Amino acid sequence: MEAHNILSKRGFSVRSFGTGTHVKLPGPAPNKPNVYDFKTIYGQMYNDLLKKDKELYTQNGILHMLDRNKRIKPRPERFQNCKDLFDLILTCEERVYDQVVEDLNSREQETCQPVHVVNVDIQDNHEEATLGSFLICELCQCIQHTEDMENEIDELLQELEEKSGRTFLHTVCFY
After folding, report:
1. Alpha-carbon dihedral 142, 143, 146, 151, rounded to 10 degrees
2. How confident is the model at residue 32 (pLDDT cuts 50, 70, 90)?
3. Are 93 and 121 in contact (CB under 8 A)?
4. What was the pLDDT predicted at 126?
């Protein structure tokens, strides 16, 4: 959602999704996450965690994150339930990248329109999310200025890998 926020502020048309069966937020222990249905709005999650342990969820930044999220959109969305077409899908974790590619490859091809799926691994903490979001924004701005994304994206990703020291995964799927 941090990348969603930054890209939206820069004028990009953005949607953000989860890929799991539920929304999982850190809990009081690593093996005790807070689990919500995708139908749960961010405000309800915020109020629930506020009641459970305001100090813990303020300290770990979850309340701040939920407050930001509810200003962006009402609730989380699940990628597998969305049938919209995209030119570019960005993921921030290899596991999510694999789920997106698997879902796209399992769909019936109707238009044969290509979609580029790119993964930028970002650790799940506030600082890395912010740094990763700026890298994602730079990637999107570079793609926006290409004349032929289909033929230039691999070279662009290679240049950004060298500049950032991060590795990108990239594949093309078809709708």
Report:
1. 130
2. very high
3. yes
4. 81
Is a pLDDT exceeding 90 seen at residue 43? Answer: yes
Residue whose tokens read 């070279």: 155
Tell me which residue range forms the domain holding 134. Answer: 1-16+79-174
- Based on DSSP, count helices (H) and strands (E) in the chain, helices before strands: 6, 5
Work out the mean pLDDT of the chain and round it to a whole number: 96
In the three-class reduction of DSSP (H, G, I as helix; E, B as strand; rest coil), residue 174 is classed as: strand
Burial class (CB within 10 angstroms; exposed 0-12, middle 13-18, buried 19+) of 157: buried
Strand pairing class (34-36; 23-25): antiparallel
Residue 104 pairs with which residues in a beta bridge? none
Is the domain of 12 the same as that of 87?
yes
| Alpha carbons 75 and 40: distance in angstroms, whole number | 6
Model confidence band, residue 124 (pLDDT cutoffs 50, 70, 90) = confident
5 and 87 assigned to the same domain:
yes
Average pLDDT over residues 48-64: 97
Same domain assignment for residues 91 and 148:
yes
What distance in Å separates the CA atoms of residue 123 and residue 42, rounded to the nearest whole number? 22
Count of domains in the chain? 2
